[in-house]
Design a protein that fits this description.
It is built from five helices and no strands. The chain has one domain (about 5-140): Four Helix Bundle (Hemerythrin (Met), subunit A), CATH 1.20.120. It has about 140 residues and is an all-alpha fold.
Length: about 140
């Protein structure tokens, strides 16, 4: 984590990352609509990754790997019930799908798989954004 971030800096960075997540989600939608299903799955995952990182920065945690983000989400937000286990399952599933589409030579992604990834990303973002907003409000109070 970037040492010494003030409360205001954490909130600003969280907002920036959340905006990035929304941008990746938009890219996923455009790719899906354009029948670029592999790209849509990739962008869906990165939307989820950026939203997860927007949450973690609020508590001063900034993992440097994808697995680190998953682990820190589990440790800091799922373990104590702030996030449902389903959110972690979505993160893991989309990470696995992203790895498959990025590195799998013979992976074929159909419209349904792309759509499912997009819907899961939207659900994850909605869940995390609700918690993120609550934490930001608490930090400002």
């Amino acid at each position: 984590m970037k040492e010494g971030l003030s409360r205001e800096d954490k909130i600003a960075l969280s907002d920036t990352r959340a905006e990035g997540a929304r941008s990746f989600l938009e890219d996923a939608e455009y790719s899906h609509d354009g029948e670029r299903y592999r790209t849509s799955v990739n962008r869906s995952y990165y939307a989820v990754l950026h939203m997860a990182r927007s949450l973690l920065v609020l508590i001063g945690v900034s993992p440097t790997s994808h697995e680190g983000v998953r682990t820190m989400l589990a440790l800091h937000f799922v373990k104590d019930g702030q996030l449902p286990k389903e959110a972690l399952a979505i993160f893991k599933e989309l990470l696995d799908r992203r790895t498959d589409v990025d590195y799998g030579d013979y992976i074929v992604v159909d419209k349904q798989r792309s759509h499912d990834s997009l819907m899961k990303a939207k659900k994850f973002i909605a869940i995390v954004e609700k918690l993120r907003k609550r934490l930001v409000k608490e930090m400002k109070d």
